[in-house]
Amino acid sequence: MKKALITGITGQDGAYLAEFLLKKGYEVHGVKRRSSLLNTDRIDHLYHDPHEPDVKFRLHYGDLTDSTNLIRLIQEVQPDEIYNLAAQSHVKVSFETPEYTANADGVGVLRILEAVRLLDLTKKTRIYQASTSELYGLVQAVPQSEPTPFYPRSPYAVAKLYGYWIVVNYREAYGMYACNGILFNHESPIRGETFVTRKITRAASKIALGLQNCLYVGNLSAQRDWGHAKDYVEAMWLMLQQETAEDFVIATGITTTVRDFIRMAFIELGIEVEFSGKDENERGVIIDIDEERALALGLNLDALRFGQTVVKVDPRYFRATEVDLLIGDATKAYTKLGWKPKYDLQALVTDMVIADLHLVKKDEYLKKGGFNTLNYFE
Ligand code: NDP
Ligand code: GDR
């Protein structure tokens, strides 16, 4: 039975990858940071009491900023495969925490590579590094593929640039099986709530139920190549099953503006939104409501009206330096890995909106029954 060690297990990709590898028969070890509250919601369905027999999924405390911890964990687990998914992964937040981001997202990668080398596991342990389309940053050429030059545009991307190159260097210097997945944006119903897609699908659901008035966003014209995280974790695994380690772009090849993603999310709920105005004054207004669809979804029609402003721009969400356009060319992955995404953008939007609508309704139902919060301070 193969053993995998996943850093970032509590994140979106960590959860989907753990589920994927467990289905493949792996023993999965996840690295989790200590936090004052449990933050294992995404992986609770995979967890079993470690006292039960034959437990295939185990969690360990750890942190990418702590080398001795990583050395001990890797020694203990002796993994066949390490998936380094842990990172301070929010681009905007990286402008506020640049040093920490460099430590975790850049030097953290080195710590893993060094641990494997020091423990003499270079021939046994294969390493996947979560690299990113943010490396392309300021557009040099489109679509972006493996040979496209990098031009990072945030402390996050610069840290990931170090991670990318240190993986290449250790592969060349020590013959390690280490590779970079240059993954374009991938989303899902368990995407972090502050990334733009999830922020949109949650807000659209709340607005449709009359629980929120308006969605405030930043740059509506940014274009992203959005795929589904479920498809992308399969590509990570495929990269570690090849004869030789190589780096791969993973993308859908379709790019969409934030504005169009918003339109699609509202349309899913039977609400048509039209945008007008420019830059900071741009806004999205309801121009049509498909009442049949809205009623079928249990929306609050009384709370929705034509002409209602449901999207506004708030410059606080602008970035000091922006990545305007990402569109990936994953031909190498199609040919060499035999990878192809199963979800298109429409299927992704539907999956996210329906899941969020359900979640918001559930929260509201619990709130009405007085069950959704425990008020410790009353
Ligand atoms: P998430 O933000 O959902 O998850 C990040 C994970 O890393 C969380 O489990 C988090 O733990 C953990 N983490 C953060 N800092 C540390 C640290 N210092 N030590 C240990 N663990 C830490 O990200 P995603 O799942 O979306 O992304 C996974 C990886 O892929 C990241 O490296 C990201 O940069 C990269 N990536 C993501 C893309 C995407 O579109 N999703 C595209 C390309 C690359 P906690 O729960 O405690 O915060
Ligand atoms: P990104 O994702 O920066 O591409 O990084 P995010 O969803 O945060 O932003 C995408 C684009 O939308 C614009 N935007 C907003 N973004 C957020 N978060 N909130 C807003 O209100 C908003 N309004 C407009 C942004 O400016 C940007 O252009 C993600 C992360 O998962 C990284 O870890 C990963 O490496 C890359 O994707 C590929």
TrEMBL record:
<dbReference type="Pfam" id="PF16363">
    <property type="entry name" value="GDP_Man_Dehyd"/>
</dbReference>
<dbReference type="GO" id="GO:0042351">
    <property type="term" value="P:'de novo' GDP-L-fucose biosynthetic process"/>
</dbReference>
<dbReference type="InterPro" id="IPR006368">
    <property type="entry name" value="GDP_Man_deHydtase"/>
</dbReference>
<protein>
    <recommendedName>
        <fullName>GDP-mannose 4,6-dehydratase</fullName>
        <ecNumber>4.2.1.47</ecNumber>
    </recommendedName>
</protein>
<dbReference type="GO" id="GO:0070401">
    <property type="term" value="F:NADP+ binding"/>
</dbReference>
<feature type="domain" description="NAD(P)-binding">
    <location>
        <begin position="5"/>
        <end position="352"/>
    </location>
</feature>
<dbReference type="GO" id="GO:0008446">
    <property type="term" value="F:GDP-mannose 4,6-dehydratase activity"/>
</dbReference>
<comment type="similarity">
    <text>Belongs to the NAD(P)-dependent epimerase/dehydratase family. GDP-mannose 4,6-dehydratase subfamily.</text>
</comment>
<keyword id="KW-0521">NADP</keyword>
<dbReference type="InterPro" id="IPR016040">
    <property type="entry name" value="NAD(P)-bd_dom"/>
</dbReference>
<keyword id="KW-0456">Lyase</keyword>
<comment type="function">
    <text>Catalyzes the conversion of GDP-D-mannose to GDP-4-dehydro-6-deoxy-D-mannose.</text>
</comment>
<dbReference type="InterPro" id="IPR036291">
    <property type="entry name" value="NAD(P)-bd_dom_sf"/>
</dbReference>
